[in-house]
Write a structure and sequence with these properties.
Helix content is about 35%, strand content about 15%. With about 325 residues, the protein is of the alpha/beta class.
């Protein structure tokens, strides 16, 4: 390694295609360390060499940070840093943190819309039955629903929630949103067809509730027995934000009882769910493995921006999308 060379360590284990995307955007004076296996021994062997760590789905824990004496920058490939980075440990060490919002909003919003349609049309049940040779042409008709004209409640109207509201316009939904920190301008509310209400009203009125909040102490298990009971009977839940926002056991109970007609879930607590988890046996749930932000098109853009931001930092430039570690 050259004396002035900087080392970037990609913390998650990924297929070679992901590593190739990263190497394609590796600037001069930078080298990339990746994992051959999803193995902590390999991580701890690499961390002492890391000047920067690029974080994806695998959580950057305190013990990793303590094992990286040269670390000066953590770059998140996405935006969900609250539960994937030990930010207290970074602050203690004086390590800087940057996120990467490019394309996240649009891609996650598309996935949320897909899960809404999948839940309403009982896609998981229809697919599984068809593969078994069962032809549910009439059995599904009484339980499938249209998105057009439904009342959709968005919990969290940040970048992703706003992008989803825009995608929903052609469906002519009645839109409600709840966010204690965001009030859309009146003109934008009118253009999107969304009104700001309290959480209780949103839950009671919505046919579909879509969650778009970060994982914080405030939002942990915000969807639990009490809030599920407050939802309109026969409603649908979509979660593409973070697993801890929903109490999984309470969700299973609401789906089994019929209180909820269905759900589309991309994020879980824990991840992955253990084998034999009750969610796997429910026919009225569509499950995806935390892939809402993960398309090839999006990852090309996000990884390029992440690597450029790291290079900019080590060249003495302005670090983009830095997180203030208070």
């Amino acid at each position: 390694m050259a004396a002035n060379e900087r080392t970037i360590f990609y913390l998650s284990h990924a297929p070679e295609a992901m590593y190739a995307m990263l190497r394609a955007h590796l600037g001069p004076g930078l080298r990339l360390l990746t994992l051959a296996e999803d193995d902590d021994a390999e991580r701890f062997a690499a961390l002492p060499h890391a000047d920067a760590v690029l974080v994806g789905a695998h959580r950057l824990r305190r013990d990793y940070i303590e094992a990286a004496p040269r670390l000066s920058l953590v770059q998140h490939q996405g935006v969900g840093w609250h539960d994937t980075v030990d930010h207290a440990a970074l602050k203690q060490r004086g390590v800087r943190l940057a996120i990467n919002p490019l394309m996240t909003a649009e891609t996650v919003a598309e996935h949320a819309l897909m899960l809404m349609l999948a839940a309403l049309r009982q896609l998981a049940r229809a697919d599984a039955a068809t593969r078994r040779g069962e032809w549910l042409v009439n059995a599904l008709r009484p339980i499938c629903r249209n998105l057009r004209g439904a009342t959709v409640g968005i919990v969290g109207m940040g970048r992703i929630g706003s992008a989803l509201a825009a995608l929903l316009q052609p469906f002519r939904v009645r839109g409600l949103y709840c966010d204690p920190y965001v009030q859309l301008p009146e003109g934008l509310e009118t253009a999107l067809g969304f009104s700001r209400v309290g959480l209780a009203e949103l839950l009671a009125e919505s046919d579909i509730v879509s969650l778009h909040v970060p994982a914080t102490t405030e939002t942990r298990a915000m969807i639990r027995t009490e809030t599920l009971a407050a939802m309109r009977p026969g409603a649908f839940l979509v979660n593409t934000c973070r697993g801890p926002v929903v109490d999984t056991d309470d969700l299973v109970a609401a789906l089994r009882s019929g209180r909820l007609a269905g759900a589309g879930i991309d994020v879980f607590e824990p991840e992955p769910l253990p084998a034999g988890h009750p969610l796997y046996s429910l026919a009225n749930v569509t499950l995806t493995p935390h892939t809402a932000a993960g398309t090839r098109d999006t990852m090309e853009i996000k990884l390029r921006e992440a690597m450029e931001n790291i290079a900019r930092f080590f060249d003495g430039g302005v670090l983009r999308h830095e997180v203030a570690l208070d």
